[in-house]
């Protein structure tokens, strides 16, 4: 009977792995929700019609899903413990993974790039792997032997660090040729180049209008990125040597090391498993492959957490200073995230009240002052006030493209992000089931609440924030919580190993790796297409053999504005790309010394001589 059940689960998992449902733009320009099975096209329905049908189904689909999640949570918890808390947490994990709003959410996103969303297919693939893994567990004999925690070897941690450093670099190189994919990445790199030249803004004067970008600001002819400065500052050493991602790549390895060190200090059973869970997490690898501020905030908040724990446990002034400095750097990159993760650390500090508390806090605050002063000066020079941030002053993100951000929409988007986190945490769904097992059925640990409070606090802060961002690769806005969730994944895997033996945990690692490959391959395969579209004008110019002159891009619609961000030329640049402003083009050409000029049309891809 068990063997038959295992076969059924494996077959069902294989079917789900092959299923896909995503928006596809047809030759007629109409976007449809189209089914496919292992690449073979199935039925398709116009996007608006599909969205309307999904909206009619949601009122009964949501309660039905909650009932199913409750049953699955009860059955899952029954395998490991009789605690009521386990049943509740497991049910919540299943509810997050099976969120029926995902398909409707995809179908009602902005039409501008609807065909680039893979969310429903992600869920099918992750659920398919989860069912296949359940089939493997069902085929294994039950064993209830307490696993003996093993100390990790230095070689194992070093290998996990190498994976975290090398894989994002390989992905970025193969899929994106190290170029920015999003406007955020373009802005961070633009500001880093300004910093590397010793400036805060580039004075383009009367020609600033020729170089528009969604994430840069033209203030009286001075152009600068409307981002927090911390991450761009981290790119500067790499810019100097021609490899901007130098420090973020190395810091990815530091993140894995710090995750292991935090796990050890908290007394978790398998901290090395936590390090590996982070290194193999598709969410972590996907974000690290992109040039986003999380590449700075994540490692420095980990260093802050570790140093704060060390300061509390050892009453160490040096560790308190390190915590303050690390927090200030993370704050300069992502302030809201830093505050969100700082709250549980402060709560731990107040709860455990180490001796010399006032001295430790004073040292931490003093160590944060230098970076804080630089942050304030950056804002003062660009906004006129040290207490008005560049981001808050100039960011005018049009949230209307995602619909009206009222309370129900905010709740829907928050649930969506939680569902994506369940998929992207370890590549199988429900990925949050392992942290649930860790909290409800794991070994007693007086600081388990702290590990759970860090991601919970971050999620709560973003739920309450007025802008609910839409992630491109997994739940980007929650990525700074990944290390702590990875530690809980490791603890949950200990629970699984206790019940099913070491073979179950070995199989889990194989499925984690498969899930990561499947999700990242799908998304970065699509990223290559998006990258190719963004690079069209530059590739067309290169193919035409043009290496000197001005190329004017005709940006006539929101799609082109988003796709082709432009920046003033670097000093001494021979080839300049600028916005087509019609009669004013001649003025820019003359100001640049009358080089040859061309015009490129995004609609046709035609490159014409003249301005």
3D structure, described in words:
With 611 residues, the chain is α+β, with helices and mostly antiparallel strands. It is 63% helix and 8% strand. The strands form 3 sheets. A 4-stranded mixed sheet has the order 8-7-9-10, with helices on one face. A 3-stranded antiparallel sheet has the order 1-2-3. A 3-stranded antiparallel sheet has the order 4-6-5. A hairpin with a 5-residue loop joins strand 1 and strand 2 (31-37). Helix 18 crosses helix 20 and helix 19 (448-464) packs across helix 20 (482-500). The longest helix has 33 residues, at 502-534. The chain is globular.
Topology readout:
Layout: H1 2-18, E1 19-25, E2 31-37, E3 40-46, H2 47-78, H3 84-97, H4 101-107, H5 119-139, H6 154-176, H7 183-196, E4 202-203, E5 216-219, E6 222-225, H8 229-241, H9 246-265, H10 271-280, H11 282-289, H12 294-314, H13 317-333, H14 335-352, H15 357-383, H16 390-394, H17 407-424, H18 433-441, H19 448-464, H20 482-500, H21 502-534, H22 536-543, E7 549-553, H23 558-563, E8 575-579, H24 585-591, E9 597-601, E10 606-609
Parallel strand pairs: 7-8, 7-9
Antiparallel strand pairs: 1-2, 2-3, 4-6, 5-6, 9-10
């Amino acid at each position: 009977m068990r063997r038959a059940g295992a076969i059924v689960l494996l077959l069902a998992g294989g079917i789900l792995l092959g299923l896909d449902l995503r928006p596809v733009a047809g030759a007629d320009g109409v976007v449809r929700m189209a089914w496919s099975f292992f690449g073979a096209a199935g039925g398709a329905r116009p996007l608006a019609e599909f969205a309307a049908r999904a909206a009619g189904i949601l009122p009964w689909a949501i309660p039905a899903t909650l009932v199913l999640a409750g049953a699955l949570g009860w059955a899952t918890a029954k395998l490991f413990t009789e605690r009521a808390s386990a049943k509740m947490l497991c049910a919540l994990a299943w509810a997050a993974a099976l969120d029926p709003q995902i398909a409707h959410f995809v179908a009602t996103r902005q039409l501008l790039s609807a065909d680039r969303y893979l969310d429903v297919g992600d869920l099918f693939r992750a659920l398919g792997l989860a069912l296949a893994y359940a089939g493997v567990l069902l085929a294994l004999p039950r064993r209830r032997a307490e696993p003996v925690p093993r100390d990790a070897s230095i070689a194992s941690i070093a290998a996990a660090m190498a994976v975290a450093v090398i894989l994002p670099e390989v992905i970025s190189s193969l899929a994106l040729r190290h170029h920015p994919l999003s406007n955020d990445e373009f802005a961070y790199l633009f500001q880093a180049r300004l910093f590397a030249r010793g400036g805060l803004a580039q004075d383009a004067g009367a020609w600033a209008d020729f170089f528009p970008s969604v994430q840069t600001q033209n203030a009286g002819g001075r152009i600068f990125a409307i981002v927090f400065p911390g991450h761009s500052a981290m790119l500067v050493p790499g810019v100097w040597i021609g490899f901007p991602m130098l420090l973020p790549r190395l810091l990815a390895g530091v993140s894995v090391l710090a995750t292991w060190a935090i796990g050890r200090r908290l007394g978790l059973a398998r901290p090395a498993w936590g390090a590996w869970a982070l290194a193999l997490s598709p969410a972590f690898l996907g974000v690290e492959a992109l040039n986003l501020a999380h590449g700075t905030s994540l490692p420095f908040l980990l260093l802050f957490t570790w140093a704060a724990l060390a300061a509390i446990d050892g009453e160490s002034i040096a560790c308190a200073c390190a915590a303050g400095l690390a927090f200030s750097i993370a704050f300069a990159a992502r302030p809201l995230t830093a505050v969100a993760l700082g709250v549980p650390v402060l709560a731990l500090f107040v709860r455990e009240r180490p001796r010399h508390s006032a001295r430790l806090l004073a040292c931490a605050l003093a160590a944060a002052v230098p970076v804080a002063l630089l942050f304030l000066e950056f804002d003062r020079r660009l906004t006129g006030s040290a207490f008005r941030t560049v981001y808050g002053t100039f960011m005018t993100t049009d949230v209307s493209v995602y619909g009206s951000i009222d309370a129900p929409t905010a709740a829907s988007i928050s649930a969506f992000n939680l569902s994506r986190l369940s998929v992207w945490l370890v590549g199988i769904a429900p990925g949050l089931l392992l942290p649930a097992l860790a909290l409800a059925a794991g070994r007693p640990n007086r600081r388990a609440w702290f590990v759970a409070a860090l991601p919970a606090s971050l999620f709560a802060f973003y739920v309450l924030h007025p802008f609910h961002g839409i992630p491109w690769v997994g739940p980007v806005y929650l990525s700074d919580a990944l290390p702590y969730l990875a530690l809980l994944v490791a603890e949950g895997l200990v629970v699984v190993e206790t019940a099913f033996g070491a073979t179950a945990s070995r199989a889990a690692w194989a499925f984690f790796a498969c899930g990561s490959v499947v999700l990242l391959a799908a998304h970065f395969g699509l990223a290559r297409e998006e990258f190719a579209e963004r690079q069209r004008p530059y590739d067309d110019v290169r193919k035409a053999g043009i290496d000197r002159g001005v190329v004017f891009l005709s940006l006539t619609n929101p799609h082109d504005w988003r796709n082709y961000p432009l920046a003033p030329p670097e000093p001494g640049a021979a080839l300049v790309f600028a916005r087509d402003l019609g009669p004013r083009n001649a003025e820019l050409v003359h100001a640049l010394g009358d080089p040859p000029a061309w015009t490129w049309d995004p609609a046709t891809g035609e490159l014409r001589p003249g301005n």
